[in-house]
Design brief:
With 268 residues, the protein is mainly alpha-helical. The protein has 2 domains: 95 residues, Winged helix-like DNA-binding domain superfamily/Winged helix DNA-binding domain (Arc Repressor Mutant, subunit A, Orthogonal Bundle), CATH 1.10.10.10; 147 residues, GntR ligand-binding domain-like (Four Helix Bundle (Hemerythrin (Met), subunit A), Up-down Bundle), CATH 1.20.120. It is built from 10 helices and 3 strands; from the N terminus they run ααβααββαααααα. Strand 2 and strand 3 form a beta hairpin. The radius of gyration is 19 Å and the shape is elongated.
Length: 268
């Protein structure tokens, strides 16, 4: 189980928002996140079953490789006990996924994601996954219903224990199974390209005070909608769930705890 110490859980007043409150919330969130990362470091020597690509990807997702950080091939090769060639190839693939930026004579660095881009990704997902939910509601079998409900039970238990990792895993599984049940290959391909960018902020959203409980409620509603067999309700429920994430993204940006979700500068 992955549970954070209670003494580090963010305790944020429900009073009106303001700069002072956001600073306090941001500091509490940062302490909580750092406590989690201290006990979940990416291993410096890769297990044979874990690829360098997956390890670098997870290091970016979890914030070990921070937005804007230069990715020096020799340093990464030493850190992960591999060759510069393997690192170079992995960085090219991560660049294709939108996680890394590369320029000739400048090297590579972790690509930041602005608040504006994160919102655009979430809005696109709301439309695409809403379609998948509608199709899944019409196509799901009884076996599919049982699997979705079983995942809902696992998520419920994860939230009860404060298990952030299992909560995120079960959340992603619900979305994945809905896409698979829908059998919308074109949409699935589009969502896969968005997935790598969105996972970076999904983890931090789950750490917000009360967000896991809210997310659980929304996922259980999605499961109920899909298993009800009503495409219209399923589509609306999925869209509402994803659009609710936008408020959480604004909260992260206001708290200043995630640099790559910094508010977009005002336009003249």
């Amino acid at each position: 189980m992955t549970q954070l110490p209670d003494v580090l859980l963010p305790v944020v007043s429900t009073a009106a928002r303001g700069p002072a409150r956001d600073v306090v919330a941001g500091r509490q969130f940062f302490l909580w996140r750092e406590a989690w990362l201290e006990t979940h470091q990416i291993p410096r020597h890769l297990p044979e079953t874990v690829s360098l690509l997956d390890t670098l990807r997870m290091a970016i997702f979890r914030g070990e490789l921070t937005p804007g950080q230069r990715l020096v091939e020799t340093e990464l090769a030493s850190r992960y006990a591999t060759s510069r060639g393997a690192v170079r190839e992995a960085l090219v693939l991560l660049s294709n996924e939108g996680l890394v930026s590369r320029e000739r004579n400048r090297g590579a660095w972790v690509r930041p994601v602005t608040l504006e881009e994160a919102i655009e990704i979430t809005e696109a997902r709301a439309v695409l996954e809403g379609l998948c939910a509608a199709k899944a509601a019409a196509a799901a079998t009884r076996a599919d219903h049982r699997e979705l409900r079983a995942t809902g039970k696992k998520m419920t238990e994860a939230v009860r224990k404060g298990d952030v990792v299992t909560y995120n895993a079960t959340s992603q599984h619900v979305h994945m199974r809905v896409r698979e049940i829908a059998q919308q290959q074109t949409v699935a391909g589009m969502l896969e390209r968005l997935r790598y960018k969105s996972v970076r902020y999904q983890f931090h959203v789950a750490l917000l005070p009360g967000r896991m409980g809210q997310g659980l409620k929304e996922h259980m509603t999605i499961i109920e909608a899909v298993t009800s067999g009503d495409p219209e309700i399923a589509e609306r429920t999925m869209r509402e769930h994803l659009l609710s994430v936008i408020g959480a993204l604004h909260q992260l940006a206001e708290m200043g705890v995630v640099p790559y979700l910094a508010p977009v500068a005002a336009r003249s």
